[in-house]
Amino acid sequence: MTRVFILMMDSFGIGGAPDASDFGDGGAATFEHIAAAHPDLNIPNLISLGLVNAAQDATGQPIRLMPKSSPTMNLPAAFGHMKEMSRDKDTVSGHWEMAGLPNLKGWGHFKPDYPSFPPELIENICKEAGLSGILGNKAASGTVIIQELGEEHIRSGKPICYSSADSCFQIAAHEEHFGLENLYRLCEIAYKHVQPYRIGRVIARPFIGEKAGEFTRTTRRRDYAAQPFGETLLDKAKNAGRRVFAIGAINDIYAHRGITDPIHAAELPGLWDATLQAMKDAPNGSLVFTNFEDFDMYYGHRRDIKGYAQALEYFDSRLPDILPLLKEDDVVFITADHGNDPAFKGTDHTREQVPVLMFGKNIRPRNLGQRDTYADLGQTAADFLDIPPLNSGKSFK
User: Fold this and answer.
1) 395, CA 20 to 30 Å: which among 21, 79, 156, 197?
2) What is the DSSP letter of 347?
3) Is-contact 180 208, C-beta < 8 A?
4) Where are any strands of DSSP class E within the chain?
5) What DSSP state is assigned to residue 372?
């Protein structure tokens, strides 16, 4: 039986979303703008799999790169670009749509200016958690707000609560002074109280350090996501008796549902190591799904073009590690869940199309064109796995 591997490059959009202007993102194109800033971007393997072709088809703009080395991937590949049906540009919507559940209603959102959160929401959370109040209460960059309010947080014991353009309620707290388990418990309380507002996620953002300028977030982030409103690709695979390996943020994004093998990993090297180990361990008929969140968390939101480019080069350099682990019928997908153009205004996600690269020893090379929904990838994965079809999407197997 075929094994399927999905490598999700979180936020790696390729521009060209037809409705980008509706989201204030006209002209956003993550890959195009990184390539323009770094024409020597060394990603020969992604290029050989069709990334540049997919991006040029999505935007109608040429992308000229001069990689410093030749590709070592010699497998047949198909390439294309996918539009998003969901009425959001957030991580959960992108992942759920890819697994067969487009979010056509969209999520609720908090207003960006102070105070972002309804007074009754904060009152209810603080009452249950035994808190005297919160800090923040606005849309903000997480790395900025902990420098701004970290010292006051340590003095007062009040958590730093903030939002963004995503449908989320984020809570930053010091791992030692506030306590990691205390932060997780607070997020569980907050999750209950944000449900009437249709909020997609409550996110725990632990950090360390003792003074402004030295605070740093740790890798012990935890997401409390809404339950998927129907069966996902993961659910169907698990219900069919298959092993489902969820690596990194995939566990939280799907609310720990449809997963047989949850694997904690963080940062690109660790995520790659965990993915390769799962490829070694996965029996025939398995699904392995990894979220490479560094692109979004460390570089997209921080508008770090150089860092994003370096992360792409590292990701590309690890792709050949897959080759000795691939079985004859294995299929690998490389894709993304939204954009986060580091050359664009603001610090939020950008509405873009995403690449779909599919490769394996028996894949027929071709241009998959524009796909009308991310769910086409999930439907194709279900087709390869020989499990019941999803409720959305068309297979391009």
Assistant:
1) 21
2) S
3) no
4) 4-9, 77-82, 135-139, 160-163, 168-174, 201-208, 216-217, 222-225, 244-247, 261-263, 287-292, 331-335, 354-359, 366-371
5) S
What is the Cα–Cα distance from 332 to 276, expressed in whole angstroms? 12
Q: Residue 148's pLDDT is what?
A: 97
Ranges of residues in the chain with a pLDDT under 70 are none
- Give the C-alpha distances (Å, rounded to integers) separating 131 from 103, 168, 209, 223, 372: 34, 20, 22, 21, 47
Q: In this predicted structure, what is the pLDDT of residue 112?
A: 86
pLDDT at residue number 105: 84
Q: Is 51 left (phi over 0), alpha (psi -120 to 50) or beta?
A: alpha
Residue 68, token pair as written in the block:
């410093």
Cis peptide before 115 (omega within 30 of 0): yes
CA proximity to 54, closest of 16, 94, 96: 16
Q: How far is Cα 6 from Cα 16, in angstroms, rounded to an integer?
A: 23
Looking at residue 66, its pLDDT comes to 87
- Tokens representing 115? 């105070």
Q: Are 254 and 200 in contact (CB under 8 A)?
A: no
pLDDT of residue 78: 98
Cα 44-263-285 angle, rounded to 5 deg: 75
* Residue 164 pLDDT: 86
Do the Cβ atoms of 247 and 271 come closer than 8 Å? yes
- What gap in Å lies between CA 249 and CA 326, rounded to an integer? 24
